[in-house]
Amino acid sequence: MQIPEHLRLCIGDRGRERDLPAYLDSPTWIVDSAWDQFAKVAKTALAAYMNYCKTNNLPHSYLLGLDILVMGSIDPNNPRHIIDIRPTMVEGPCCNSYPACPNLWASRLYGQLKLKGFNPDLVEYPTHPEMILDKICRLFSDIWEVKGDSSRKPVCAVFTRPYDLSEEETAHVTTLNALKAFGYEAYRITPEEKPEVKEGKIWVHGKPIDMVWRRIERIHLPGQANPPGRDDEKWVEFYGEEFAKKVVNETPKTIWINPWKIDDLRSKTIEEKAFRLYEETNPGKTISRPITLLGDQVNAKAVSKLADLGGWVMKRWNSTGGKGVFMHVNLEKSKTLCDHLYNRYDGRHMLLMDTNMKNEELAKLDAFNEDSAVQLMRFPDARDLGGGKKLVYDTRINVLYNPKTDEWEFLSGMSRSVPCGEGVDNGNSLLTNVSMGAEISPLIMGHVKKGADRSQIKYGPILTALMNGKTETTF
User: Fold this and answer.
1) Considering the domain boundaries, does residue 188 fall inside one?
2) 258-313 residue pLDDT tens
3) 432 three-state secondary structure
4) From the CB of residue 132, how many other CB atoms can be counted at a distance below 10 Å?
5) How far apart are the first and last CA of the chain?
6) 293: which strand partners?
7) What whole-number distance in Å separates Cα of residue 330 and Cα of residue 378?
8) DSSP for 53-71?
9) pLDDT at position 145 over 60
10) Residue partners of 279: CB distance under 8 A and separation at least 6
């Protein structure tokens, strides 16, 4: 299928863009009762996020992403029995680079689906994909009306740095063009524009910037030595530490859509502490997430209980993008389920443990002393595509904070899909980020319109159980 230019998804830096694979044949449908449950999990996590910001006197973001998957655990007495099925918060609320992309890619994936013959308008969306850019531009206007100088329009910018493995460039350029079409003076900020920090604001092209989409995230890109085809370059250098510190600490007069100092909760230990704080101060309120151990809770005895339910996941302090995530799968308990759901699953960052290896790994934890979280290994759903091929998917749901109503609104979403099965060379790591081989795929969420043809909607067995009001299923 030939994709028109305005619907392309691209990866790579300026002048080196290439198409990013999109999997369109089996969109992720989170609809009806499942969507209501996903929305509830998201809203509770956002309440915990805002509570954390208020308690620590930190500015909150206006745009966040939440990774919520429908997942289950293994019945330790029956390997064919999946229990505790529920939407599960895997990461978030966080403001790393992804929210810049799904918000815009949702509209492009929507257009690609229509080209392919799907009907993505079977549902009532929280925000229709074609209205996402308009809503983002109105967000800038609303924030400026509440916090800025209503006698003039703000000068806006998109803070970015394209690089080889970045899937952000298309989204950032599209955002910039939308802000200009909305009537704003808008600029991009990269090292090439030689931005400055002075008088309490970030400046670019001699202009003080009032509002910035995104925030400085990386000083340089670790691990990007000698990018493919560019052997003469040792590192992709971003802004440098001195400048980055100035941006973070010396720009109180610039409004950041995603301020740095909230630390965006990508640290799993900070995220868990925020969730625990909320639950302690709001009896009866819980955030749906895996069992999580911190600090001196991490020891062989405690983690062995997680192993009995299928395994555990270690999430080092900066685990964004799956880079610090290490899965330990207990084959004694999990192999039957994993074989059924995924066929193959021997991917990156994964230890497939027999009994001896499990005991060796558990023994290491009695001397464990890291700023990391250890979580129960819960298993995501997988759709059967036929021919021995399965598809595991991750959902990123985006939300926008409305400063006029003091409420979070659902904006858009996307999935990242990883094919797995006997014919897939690398199996599947269940870490569905793009740099590890995942493809972007559509996420369609909302309520199915009355009388709509549901024949295009496909679910995996775990999501099917959730849709049927069940918290367990047996295969």
Assistant:
1) no
2) 887 665 566 788 899 999 999 999 999 999 999 999 999 999 999 999 999 999 99
3) coil
4) 23
5) 37
6) 374
7) 12
8) HHHTT-PPPSEEEEEEEEE
9) yes
10) 48, 285, 286, 287
The tally of domains found in the chain comes to 1
Helix (H), strand (E) at residue 19: strand 18-19
Q: Identify the bridge partners of residue 447 per DSSP, sorted by sequence position.
A: 124
Residue 160's closest CA among 235, 93, 106, 213? 213
The whole-angstrom separation of Cα 330 and Cα 115 is 43
Distance CA 10, CA 12 (A): 7
Quickly state the pLDDT bin for 222 (edges 50, 70, 90). very low
| Residue 15 · residue 441 · CB < 8 Å | no
Contact 473, 93 (CB under 8 A): no
How many CB atoms are closer than 10 A to CB 86? 19
pLDDT tens for each residue of 223-268: 444 455 555 655 556 677 788 888 888 999 999 998 876 655 667 8
Instruction: Count Cβ neighbours within 10 Å for each residue of 264-301 and write b for 16 or more, e otherwise.
Output: bbbbbbbbbbbbeebeeeeeeeebbbbbbbbeeebebe
User: Does pLDDT of 99 surpass 50?
Assistant: no
CA nearest to 247, candidates 316, 205, 195: 195
**Run of H or E including 431:** none
Which residues, other chains included, contact 142 with Cβ-Cβ below 8 Å and sequence gap of 6+?
402, 403, 404
Q: Is 357 helix (H, G, I), strand (E, B) or coil?
A: helix
Q: Could you tell me if residue 175 is inside a domain? A: no
- Distance in angstroms (rounded) separating the CA atoms of residues 263 and 286: 22
Q: DSSP for 124-192, please give it.
A: E-SS-GGGHHHHHHHHHHHHHHHHS-TTSPPEEEEE----TT-S-HHHHHHHHHHHHHTT-EEEEE-GG
Q: What is the DSSP-derived secondary structure letter of residue 260?
A: G
Residues 73, 337: Cα–Cα separation, whole Å: 10
Q: Which DSSP letter does residue 103 get?
A: H
133 inside domain? no
Q: What angle do CA 253, 96, 319 make, to 5 degrees?
A: 135
320 occurs within a structural domain: yes
Q: Which domain holds residue 402?
A: 23-96+267-474
Three-state DSSP class for residue 324: coil
C-alpha span between 228 and 224 (Å, rounded): 9
Rg (the chain; Cα; Å): 22
